[in-house]
Design a protein that fits this description.
Layout lengths: L3 E4 L5 H7 L11 E5 L8 E2 L9 E2 L28 H7 L5 E4 L2 E3 L3 E4 L4 E5 L5 E4 L1 E3 L5 E5 L2 E7 L2 H8 L8 E4 L2 E2 L1 E2 L24 H4 L32 E5 L4 E5 L11 E4 L3 E6 L4 E4 L2 E3 L2 E5 L5 E3 L2 E3 L11 E3 L5 E3 L2 E3 L8 E3 L5 E2 L1
Parallel strand pairs: 5-8, 6-9, 7-19, 8-20, 9-21, 15-16, 19-22, 20-23, 21-24, 22-25, 23-26, 24-27, 25-28, 26-29
Antiparallel strand pairs: 1-2, 3-4, 10-18, 11-12, 12-17, 13-14, 13-18, 16-17
Length: 359
């Protein structure tokens, strides 16, 4: 949908056709509301009429218009490629292959009854479908219980505006590509670092040696399970290097950086969604040569769903509890894939499906 106009008088067919390809000024007589599908800094749908009845946006995706002096409409050629994965999927037909060149694509992809399309990274290219977005914030030193840390007050409305989806919380934090740890009452080595131990003889000081029960999975999720007595990310537990905490009531992000990972306005990325790719009742989809980063891939009621030669990193975390996987559907294949740095959930979960292959 590109535009909505509301009038308080009935307009004839000729009147509608005369103006349908023109942009309005908003001051036309009898115009009650005019939504050219622009959003304001408060992530509202802007009404350009004099009434200014700005709309609240819920459960919809906002797509940017594409325009260029050299290419009015993208067609997927070398000279006129699609600017986003979503824009290519919008034009793809059953039997098509969407071939993606190297790059980092921070997109939320959601499809319903979308069939027979192959989504593939260009051979030899590093194609990252990224669940994080850059965080341009003003970081300032802050003393927290005697610890020299940093804090930044985030403008969540501006984050929503710039990234075209609502942002109301932070799920993961990365500085210069390094994973930061949500603050915990027990301190441990960064789990992304190499370890010298093994499951039977874990390295001391690592997460594997401490055998910590998840505070998220057991806090109220089932009546017979006992609460651990704390929540991850509490500011009171922020007391060691590479921990972070976010206070949604004040939109303040706190970080205890390690040497070499001091936050700036250009080196921090944050995860703001649990699910990155969501497919419902989509059959004969194939994914190949892709890197799914800090966001999960979900399928519901999808038949002949294939993922191969791909990599999954940081898909699930303590607050982002949605694992990769499928529910319902028949004939799924997950082949030759790498899963790394999963926390608080399995790398892939599959339930109530028929004839799965995992190899």
């Amino acid at each position: 949908m590109d535009e909505v106009r509301m009038w308080n008088v009935a307009r004839s067919e000729s009147e509608i056709k005369a103006d349908m390809s023109k942009e309005l000024t908003g001051s036309e007589s009898n115009l009650v509301a005019y939504y050219p599908m622009n959003i304001n800094i408060n992530y509202e749908l802007v009404d350009l009429s004099s009434n200014q009845n700005h709309g609240t946006i819920k459960n919809v995706d906002i797509r940017q218009k594409y325009s260029s002096n050299d290419c009015n409409v993208p067609d997927g050629t070398e000279s006129c490629p699609y600017p986003t994965i979503n824009s290519a999927l919008d034009d793809a037909n059953p039997g098509d292959r969407v071939l993606i060149k190297e790059g980092r694509y921070s997109e939320y992809i959601k499809r319903f009854q979308y069939h027979d399309v192959k989504i593939e990274g260009y051979p030899g290219h590093n194609v990252v479908i990224d669940g994080t977005i850059p965080l341009e914030a003003n970081w300032e030193p802050y003393n927290h219980n005697g610890h020299s840390i940093y804090k930044a007050v985030l403008d969540l409305d501006l984050l929503s505006y710039n990234n075209l989806f609502p942002v109301d919380s932070i799920y993961s934090v990365f500085v210069n590509g390094r994973y930061m740890i949500m603050s915990m009452p027990v301190n441990f080595k960064n789990p992304t670092d190499p370890t010298t131990g093994n499951p039977k003889n874990p390295e001391p000081g690592t997460l594997f040696s401490l055998k910590i029960r998840s505070p998220v999975a057991y806090n109220g999720s089932s009546p017979e399970l006992v609460s651990e007595g704390y929540e991850p990310g509490e500011l009171a537990n922020l007391d060691t290097l590479e921990e972070w905490s976010f206070n949604p009531s004040t939109s303040t992000l706190y970080l205890y950086p390690s040497p070499g990972y001091i936050p700036t306005s250009s080196n921090v990325r944050v995860r703001t969604k649990a699910i990155m790719l969501n497919f419902h009742e989509c059959d004969y989809l194939q994914f190949k040569n892709l890197h799914f980063y800090s966001g999960s891939l979900k399928g519901n009621g999808c038949d002949h769903f294939v993922v191969e030669d791909s990599k999954f990193s940081f898909s699930v975390d303590m607050r982002a509890k949605e694992s990769n996987g499928l529910i319902y559907g028949e004939y799924s294949v997950v082949r030759n894939c790498i899963f790394e740095h999963m926390n608080n959930g399995p790398p892939w979960r599959q339930q109530r499906t028929m004839y799965p292959t995992f190899e």
